[in-house]
Amino acid sequence: MASTSPDRRGVGSALDPSAEQIRDMGGRAVEWVAVHHDSIRGLPIAPRISAAALKGVLAEPLPVEGRDFTDLLTVFRDVIVPGSRHNGHPRFFGYVSAPGTAVAAVADFLASALNPNLTAWRSAPAPTELEHVTIDWIKEVLGCDPGAGGLFMSGGSMANFTALAAARHRHCGDAVATHGTAAHPAPLRVYASTETHHSIHKAAVLLGIGRANVREIPVDAGFRMDVGALVDAIDEDRAAGAEPFCVVANAGSVVTGAVDPLAEIAAVARRYGMWMHVDACYGGFARLAPSARPLFDGMSEADSIALDPHKWLYLPADCGCLIYRDPAAARPAFSMDADFIRVMQTEPAEAFAFWDYGPDLSRRFRALKVWMALAHAGSRAVGDAIEGNLDCARHLAELVDASADFELLAPVELSIFCFRYLPPAARAGSRSQADEEALDRLNERIMVVLQQAGSSYLSNATINGRFALRGCVLNYRTTRRDMEILLDDVRRAAKQAIDETR
Question: Which residues does this entry mark as bearing N6-(pyridoxal phosphate)lysine (predicted)?
Fold first, then answer.
């Protein structure tokens, strides 16, 4: 008779800890979170450490025997935390990155502990209903019609990809779904401004549309899509035998924060029978701020809207969102038949399946942190925080305009600002191409020095061919004083960079 191994599944094991062990682990973790939130303003934003040094501390063979949780928390506290960039710092202005909130972190913990799989209503009835409720709240924020619908996704790139897939299917139908893009007789065209996020181009590649079939439309002085140039491009492509099927508008571009003329683009889309998608991943929730709301007129007319609650709802990653004006128009692109996912329920709400509206089958419970954060803080508090971020960016622009050593390179429309340092000699007279290239190199070095110093953090952008120091205010902790400190930090970095070249 074959021997059997001892039963190691008893309560108290590493895989199935006791209630007391869970309390101990949770208590230690929560204490760290409380201290971290209380001290984050005093932390250096970015670590000064090499990949080799981190690997030397972290690398080890696959553990055969387990270790105590205290040891693991020590590694997290002493290695992972100081080796991380602190996106929650009030002067972290790099990219478009939110600080997270304590209540959302708790929600993520609870969602992981419950661990529902939101494939369909039958798999997670209450979590599914909560996702519907939270999507309804987001629709209200955007001013969408009650008949709109949507779902949470991993982020904006996946939301943009999914929207283009729905747009393509509406235009091409089942032939392309069955036989591939070769079954369509004419090249497809997507239109997006030169400021559009690269995920649109990536989606075109992955969907077989092709990068070359994304026509980039020029922008005006405010970096907004030129609608006249859009119409000209569409007419030109139709005359050449191509098929325009989708236009992508920005509601807060990633480089400058520009919001395209959404109502005008919606009218063009209707005129030509095209799907209109709005990439509102960064800017869409700024509609909660009264001073920015008029910028988003026309957004609710789009066929689809991509958003990132893990940006301006201040949530921890990951949490993207896609809204469909008419969910029924998107469903044929994703609905598939398979016996193991066959739905038996007959009541429509209970027969609902998220897999009919996007590419994912297994889905985590992202709605809980969105619901808990909005319900805990309230939309007024979130809108006030966004308004504060907009004010900080405008304050920075005013400081730059009033300075003798900085130059604004793009208008500030939302909370993104792009500027550069100018030495006194560069202020006077005209500058040659060689002078401009020297300024590019200087500002690039300033950015690196600034990041290494740890007090403030900026990323970079290219504006009209010139290197820009780029920042995005996306933190409820940030104040006007932080913007003043930022410029002082840049001045110190500039002095160091200039001294290094002497």
Answer: 311
